[in-house]
C-alpha cells in the first residue's frame, strides 16, 4: 500500500527515477528550457529547485552536494557560475511550467519547463506591467490624502455653480418673456376658428 507516499514514482524503480531526474536537471541547467511531460516536469521542479538554492552559497561542500545529485561537472559549473548570479535576488520559484497541449502518439500532456530568469520576453513583459500601477482603495494613507484634497476641490466647484446660475438667470427671464408673448397669440389663433364656425352656422 502507498500510505503516506505522495510523490510520483513515474513508473520507474528508485534508481531509474533518480537517474532520469538527474539527467533532466542537468539538461535544464545547461539549456535553460526543456520540453517534457507535465508529470515529469512537476517532479523535476521539486528536484532541481533545492539545488538552485544551494548554488546561491558557493562553497566546496555545496558544490559536492550538488555534484552528488547531478553527476555532471559542466552543469555544476554552469549552476554555480551563471545561474546563481541570475537567481541571487529571487527567494525561490526558479522554474516555470508552460503547458503545450497533448502529444499525438500517446496523448500525454506536454509542457516546457524553464528557468524563470532566462526568459527575456517574459521579463520584458513583467517590467512593462510593473510600470503601470493600479490605484488601490484599501490603503488608509491614500484615503486620508484624498479626503484632505476633497474640500479644496469642492469649494471652487460651488462658486462656479453659483456663477453659472447667475449667468443663466437673465436667459431664463428672457425665455419666460418670450413664452408670455406667445400665449396671447396662441389664444387668438384658437378663438378665430370658433368665430368662423359661428358665422357658417
TrEMBL record:
Database matches in Gene3D superfamilies: Ribosomal protein L17 (3.90.1030.10)
UniProt keyword terms in alphabetical order: Ribonucleoprotein, Ribosomal protein
Protein name from the UniProt record: Large ribosomal subunit protein bL17
Pfam families per record: Ribosomal_L17
Residue spans of biased composition, Low complexity class: 147-173
Compositional bias of kind Basic and acidic residues: 191-201
GO cellular component, one term: ribosome
Species assigned in the record: Aquirufa beregesia
Annotated spans, Disordered: 127-201
Biased composition (Acidic residues): 174-190
Membership in a protein family: Belongs to the bacterial ribosomal protein bL17 family.
The keyword Ribonucleoprotein appears for this protein: yes
Domain of life per record: Bacteria
Complex formation: Part of the 50S ribosomal subunit. Contacts protein L32.
Record carries keyword Ribonucleoprotein: yes
